[in-house]
Amino acid sequence: MQDNIGIFGGTYDPPHLGHLILAAEALDQLGLSKVLWVLTPIPPHKLEQTITPLEHRLVMTQLMLDDYPQFELSRAEIDRPGPHYMLETIRVIKTRSPDVNPFLLVGGDSLQDLPSWHRPAELVSACQGLGVMRRPNDTIDLKSLEEILPGLSDKVQFINAPLLEISSRDIRKRISESRVFRHYLTPLVYEYILKTGLYLQR
To answer: How many C-beta atoms lie closer than 10 Å to residue 147's C-beta?
Structure first.
């Protein structure tokens, strides 16, 4: 029996409530059995950015997911050398679990940028579907994308979720400026950031 699972990639620097809500809506609306949170050590498109060491992001993500049995931290990228491209990640996941149907979960901005991803046509083919989470003010020209990546439209499923203007970048900025940030995070992640002093010197 085929098992529909979500593939939710990110740096999770830090993981926040917006991530949880979007993953939960994807789980419900796409009829997924679980969502794999693929923690990316060093994303190819963020090589010039300062990223919190993997060990901290790994702990924070696991702390956030422990209370959610249908959410699972994936080591598909952690346990292999980079660069980490989503096409290879999905192939690794399917090799480990041949009976899964992967649904790649992306934001509307990422969908619009999909033609610039690594071997995008093969990526679309490798996915059972693409769950697209709309974000405030994003613009998606699905007709133009279909011309570049034939068959994409048939796989896109839009996910209705609250328009949450929460970003890890904004949370990091708030922490560095000693502004309020507690309400964006789960209690355990908040406590971990306080204990370690993460983001204070950004």
So the answer is: 10
Q: Is CATH 3.40.50.620 correct for 3-165?
A: yes
User: Whose CA is closest to 51, among 79, 13, 108?
Assistant: 13
Per domain, the residue ranges of the chain are: 3-165
- What angle separates helix 187-196 from helix 54-65, to the nearest 10 degrees? 150
| Both tokens assigned to 90 | 């999905």
Exposed / middle / buried, residue 134 (Cβ in 10 Å: 0-12, 13-18, 19+): middle
**Res. 20 pLDDT band, cuts 50 70 90:** very high
Q: Report yes or no on whether pTM surpasses 0.90.
A: yes
d(CA 130, CA 201): 37
In the block, which residue shows the tokens 């370690």? Answer: 196
CB within 8 Å of 138: residues ≥ 6 apart: 107, 108, 109, 112
